[in-house]
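Sharing a chain and its predicted structure for anyone who wants a worked example. Both blocks are below, sequence first, C-alpha cells second.
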Amino acid sequence: MQLEIGPDPAEVGRARRWARSRLAGSGIGEDEPLAETLVLLISELVTNAVVHTGCPAVLRMLFGAGTGTAQPGTVRVEVADTSARPPRPRHADGDDTNGRGLELVDGLADRWGWQREGAGKSIWCEVDRCAPVVTGVVREPGGYAPSCAVTHRA
C-alpha cells in the first residue's frame, strides 16, 4: 500500500491519518504501542522528505508476510522521494526545535537505512511486531516472556 505525498508540510498530517487507517485494517489497534510507534516513525520520515527535499514523495507500508521486502512479523515503512541527496543524521542540542528525526527513527525502529531508488532515494525502517518486551512483564523462570506484547526501547 502506498500514498502519494505532496511537497507541503500539511501532508504530514494526512500521512498520519492514512497510516492509522491502514494499521487498523491490518489488525494493529490504534491504542497499541506498536501503532503509536509506527505513526511517529511515519511522521518523522514524511516530515524529513517534505522539509528537506521540497519534492513529492511516496509513503509505503509493508506488512511482512514472507514476500517482498518485509520479513514475516515485521512492519516496514518506506518514504521515497526524487532527491538524490542522502539523509544526513544530525544531533540536536537541548534547546533545538528540530534535528531529532533520524535519531528518533534510530531509537524506535528495529532497523533502518536508505538506498538509491531511481533518480532519488528511499528511506526505510522496520519494526518487529513481536519485539522483545522491555518493561512491565513478569518473566517465567529462565527469562522467557510468555506474551508477544510490544514495548519499544526507552
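Comments welcome. The longest strand covers residues 120-128.
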